[in-house]
Amino acid sequence: MAIALRDGLESEDYSVEVQSDGPSGLRSAMEKDFDLIVLDVMLPKLSGFDVCKQIRAAGNKVPVIMLTARSLEIEKVQGLKIGADDYMTKPFSLMELIARIEAVLRRASREDHPAGTYQFGDVSLDFGKYEATKGGEQLELSAREFRILKFLIEHRGQVISRDQLLDGVWSFDSSSSPRTVDTHIAKVRQKIETTPNNPQHLITIHGVGYKFVG
Predict the structure, then answer these.
(1) N or C: which end of the chain has fewer CB within 10 A?
(2) How far apart, in whole angstroms, are the C-alpha atoms of residue 172 and residue 84?
(3) Residues in CB range of 214: below 8 A, 6 or more apart
(4) What is the 3-state secondary structure (H, E, C) of 96-160?
(5) pTM recorded for the entire structure
(6) C-alpha distances in angstroms, 143 versus 79, 153, 195?
(7) Residue 30 per-residue DSSP state
(8) What does the pLDDT look like over 113-133, one tens digit per residue?
(9) How far apart are CA 2 and CA 104, in angstroms?
(10) Residue 108 — left, alpha, or beta (φ > 0 → left; ψ -120 to 50 → alpha)?
């Protein structure tokens, strides 16, 4: 099942590492900076409950989704009490797991970044005050450029089409077009990217749209 989940998640552009027992998973969780851990309860040598306990005891706040073949409510409560962020009972579909992963990552992101502010690289944004800096220097962004960044950051890691940007930022203004999106993205890149021709944060997904990484 672990291999099937790995292949399915990688097909959705997630980078995945698989460990086959509790001690290996715990060691990996302690040594590396993961965005999220999918943790089976029934692991060899050390249970998922024990792995989660030790992760939390070490002060590691990485989001954890626990998987189990058991459906007892008491075990679900136990998993949540020891620090799991969500709990899924087998069998489940890959798409349901992905939906849970996205929801947990969104919640974690809101906790990590106070409402209205965000920082990536040497850029700091305050969406409430419409203020931005890069390398400590004031960065001039238009209100539209702030809204573009806010929309992409709220959907970071996801590929966003031009139509989605038009709907979310321009609300399909009759005067706007997909070309308008491209023009604004190019302007934003010139301001936030260290090397606009080789962007590290505002990535073009050819034939589809854009993705924010940061």
Answers:
(1) N
(2) 40
(3) 120, 121, 153, 156, 200, 201
(4) HHHHHHHHHHHHHHHHHCCCCEEEECCEEEECCCCEEEECCEECCCCHHHHHHHHHHHHCCCCCE
(5) 0.53
(6) 44, 15, 23
(7) H
(8) 555 789 998 999 998 888 999
(9) 20
(10) alpha
